[in-house]
Amino acid sequence: MEGGVVLLDFWPSMFGMRVRIALAEKEIKYEYIEQDLRNKSDLLLQMNPVHKKIPVLVHNGKPICESLVQVQYIDEVWKNQAPLLPADPYKRATARFWADFVDKKMYDSGSRVWKTKGEEQEAAKKEFIGNLKLLEGELGDNLYFGGDGFGYVDVALVPFYCWFYAYEQCGNFSIEAECPKLIAWAKRCMQKESVAKSLADPEKVYGFLLQLKKAYGIE
Amino acid sequence: MAEAEAESVVKLLGAWLSPYCYRVIWALKLKAIPYEYIEEDLSAKSPLLLQSNPVHKKVPVLIHDGKPISESTVILRYIEEIWPQNPLLPTDPYEKAVALFWIKFADDKSPSISKLYRSDGEEQQQAAKECWEMLEAMEEEGLMEGKKFFGGDEINMVDIAFCSVAHWLGVIQDFAGLKILEPHRFPKLSSWILNFKSVPMIKENLPDTDKMIALLKRRREMLLAAKSN
Predict the structure, then answer these.
(1) Inter-residue contact B118 to B220 (CB < 8 Å)
(2) Is B78 touching A (CB cutoff 8 A)?
């Protein structure tokens, strides 16, 4: 059997949630250690000296950093259950491309929605929705980005869903009105125990975001 | 030539100055994969490029049997899976995860290098700081004492991913009159750069420095002029 698994994480982190989902999908038992990011533990600094960020996955005492690298690692080591990446190399490349798109676009464009006001915020909202519409296009009529089955891109993207309520409150807009198919997809994912257990409560996330705004000095 | 003969199985859409394109060229050459190279004019993108990479409209794009793949790291992973000869990634899952970490690091941090010639004043200083931090992380955490390359005795995907540091940074910092990559401050990294650029396949496939400087100069003038307008 595989050795001990530890996850250093922070409850509202979409990146941490990706790993929680992957671990749950594979039914891997692990120790979850909540991190205080304003007062970083020696363990965190030692396990991720380059970025000093969460999530950090520790397997058999050895750390792995970067959420998508962690998800790919989990998929490779625990390959006999709930495969996340497809078997076909071209489909794998497509999945990696879209997970990379989520990484490059979602966090930054979402952040700009709550960090800005006025015209800047309108532009940020437009960009954010534009990115979601591209993802909706890729989803098409499939149940999941992985096709019939929940997969790698679903894991990469679905954690952002619990942040949508916070973005909507800050930006005074409805994501469902603009991207109904994507919201339908998210709700479908939420019916999976691995996702429902791993995502944070949207109200709590909004409360956290309000604190963050205060700390940044944003109204 | 008959149409069937003229059709390449592998095509690469690239731009001669782009480090991301060189990553793919090196991988294809190291694995001895024949390909057709198509130079793109990025100021007048071809219908093939726009059709093959509608999301980002960028190079490199690899087209294999008519199917396009975009984003250099995604392309490298694909090449590795389809053509496993001369492997560029470790097979051990943990070592592979460490390699992928550094490849992502290279992806995330390399844009700071081109910012050095695209900006001035405070913005350029910020870019210089980011480059310095990237080099520090590579020196302290990335390069192991006694190892010639990130890949050990031979280059691998991590070495290839750090192409911007190996060649572009030196040219750009000289052009911009900055001293970031100093050998006494980054001894392991400086050694690695020398070793990397001595690999015959790499040495024979690097963009000409003088041509680079001429193009960077033109680009910088255009960008700074556009900013002040």
Answers:
(1) yes
(2) yes
Identity of the residue numbered B6:
A
* H or E element in which residue B226 lies: helix B209-228
Pairing of strands A5-9, A56-59: antiparallel
| Sheet strand arrangement including A5-9 | A31-34, A5-9, A56-59, A62-65
Q: Give pLDDT tens digits for A68-84.
A: 999 999 999 999 999 99
Residues in chain A: 219
- pLDDT for the residue numbered A52: 96
Residue A21 to residue A80: CA distance in whole angstroms: 16
Q: What is the pLDDT of residue B8?
A: 54
Residues in contact with B37: Cβ distance below 8 Å, sequence separation at least 6, in sequence order: B11, B12, B14, B25
pLDDT at A2 over 60: no
* pLDDT tens-digit series, residues A83-103: 999 999 999 999 999 999 999
Q: Would the pTM count as exceeding 0.90?
A: yes
- Residue B97 has its nearest CB partner, among A64, A97, A101, at A64
Interface of A with B in 47-86 (CB under 8 A): 49-50, 59, 62, 64-66, 68-70, 72-73, 76-77
DSSP states of A105-172: HHHHHHHHHHH--HHHHHHHHHHHHHHHHHHHHHHTT-SBTTBTS--HHHHHHGGGHHHHHHHHHHHT
CB-based contacts of B174, cutoff 8 Å, min separation 6: none
